[in-house]
Write a structure and sequence with these properties.
Number of helices: 18
Family: Belongs to the peptidase M48 family.
GO molecular function, one term: metal ion binding
Largest sheet: 4 strands, mixed
Protein name: Peptidase M48-like protein
Strand order of the largest sheet: 1-2-4-3
Structural class: mainly alpha
Helix content: 55-70%
Distance between the termini: 54 Å
Keywords: Cell membrane, Hydrolase, Membrane, Metal-binding, Metalloprotease, Protease, Transmembrane, Transmembrane helix, Zinc
Order of helices and strands: HHHEHEEEHHHHHHHHHHHHHH
Radius of gyration: 26 Å
Pfam families: Peptidase_M48
Length: 391
């Protein structure tokens, strides 16, 4: 049985807790039907005339545990080959576009139908909770006033949903090569394709930086994710990417606030910077501000992938690298605290430089020099003192 990705569960927990009014407004209620729209604008694929389509539908539904009837339509006109699931109460509806049915064999068609039916599984899971989140994020994306964090969450949410649906395709047809071949035919328009070559192509890429897709991950990334999911690997780095202060989603914004709070508290407890003024500035990084000088957790290194606590009950995520922008932000946080109390003088600067060395902020000296305008002689003296502290 398919299960939602950790990203789905994390966003669900966050939205349910933070956006209670929106949750209440969107939860429950019937899902609207397609009415006569498809009857007017598409051709219904009756089983008597298109038995192979319905056979693929039954096979996919049985493999996924979908007990609803499945109806199929082909829209009028040309266009690219595609398949779309239409969510409604009652029968599951799958709409084909373009010459898709002409390109796929029965196993490939089963994979495509399984992908679309997996959307239904996700929207019905946990009493429709994931459908509520999808409605909320979709509505937010259409509003020009929506903060960027919600838009990035919506992008990642859709990427995660497509990875989930791809797992439905694989579960339905039961074979990785068939699933990837169907994906390739859909994306390229080719009548034949080599899935093994595509998987080798995926291995040539570094996908740890995440997908750059807006609604779907890149095809090669989807193939990579399926292969590694079968191998029991965590592939959600494709959705989240590194921790980037310049493009956080809702979950990363929470992680960055926590990281800032912990780091600032740790700085404020360091010899040379343990003053009331520094503690007051440190407490301001907490949201809401906490007691002055609360010690942070264990010292973390920022030049290594960062192990972060899961958000709202999601599984423990794979450690994530920090982007250069995030490291630069942490350098500025450190410099703000190092200069928060003029009375700390050089001792505070040396203490901050020693912290930077311990946590792997290798560009801190350059940044501080650029901002404070040290002479070469003074910088060398401060750096030597910091090296002695660390040693």
């Amino acid at each position: 049985m398919l299960s939602a990705l950790g990203y789905h569960r994390g966003v669900l927990g966050y939205v349910h807790r933070v956006d209670e009014h929106a949750w209440a407004a969107l939860q429950g209620g019937p899902v609207g039907g397609v009415g006569d729209v498809l009857l007017r604008n598409a051709y219904r694929l009756a089983e008597a005339a298109h038995p192979c389509v319905h056979q693929a539908g039954r096979r996919a539904a049985e493999a996924l545990g979908v007990d609803a009837a499945v109806e199929f339509f082909q829209v009028h006109g040309g266009g690219d080959a595609n398949a779309v699931y239409v969510h409604q109460d009652g029968p599951a509806v799958i709409v084909f576009e373009g010459p898709l049915l002409e390109r796929l064999d029965s196993d490939e068609l089963t994979a495509v139908v399984g992908h679309e039916l997996a959307h239904r599984l996700l929207w019905e899971a946990e009493d429709g909770a994931y459908l509520v989140v999808d409605r909320l994020l979709d509505a937010a994306a259409g509003d020009a006033r929506t903060p960027q964090q919600y838009l990035e969450t919506y992008r990642r949410w859709r990427l995660a949903t497509e990875l989930y649906a791809d797992r439905g395709a694989l579960t339905a047809c039961g074979e990785l090569s068939t699933t990837v071949r169907a994906l390739l035919k859909l994306q390229t328009g080719l009548s034949s394709a080599d899935p093994e070559a595509y998987l080798r192509q995926a291995d040539e890429l570094d996908l740890s930086t995440g997908s750059r897709g807006t609604s779907h991950p890149e095809g090669v990334a989807r193939a990579w994710a399926l292969k590694n999911w079968l191998a029991g690997e965590d592939v959600e780095s494709l959705v989240t990417g590194p921790l980037d202060v310049d493009a956080p989603d809702l979950l990363d914004a929470a992680l960055l606030r926590e990281l800032s709070t912990d780091f600032a508290a740790r700085i404020a407890q360091t010899d040379g910077l343990r003053t009331d003024a520094v503690a007051t500035t440190s407490a301001g990084f907490a949201d809401p501000p906490g007691p002055l000088g609360v010690p942070g957790g264990a010292v973390r290194r920022f030049d290594e992938p960062l192990a972060v606590r899961p958000i709202d009950g999601a599984p423990m995520p794979r450690p994530r690298p920090l982007t250069e922008a995030t490291k630069r932000y942490l350098c500025y946080l450190l410099l703000d605290l190092a200069t928060a109390d003029p009375d700390t003088g050089d001792a505070g600067l040396v203490a901050s430089m020693a912290i930077a060395r311990r946590v792997g902020l290798t560009t801190y000296d350059d940044l501080a020099d650029d901002e404070l305008g040290w002479s070469d002689k003074r910088r060398a003296k401060l750096a030597q003192s910091a090296d002695e502290v660390v040693a």
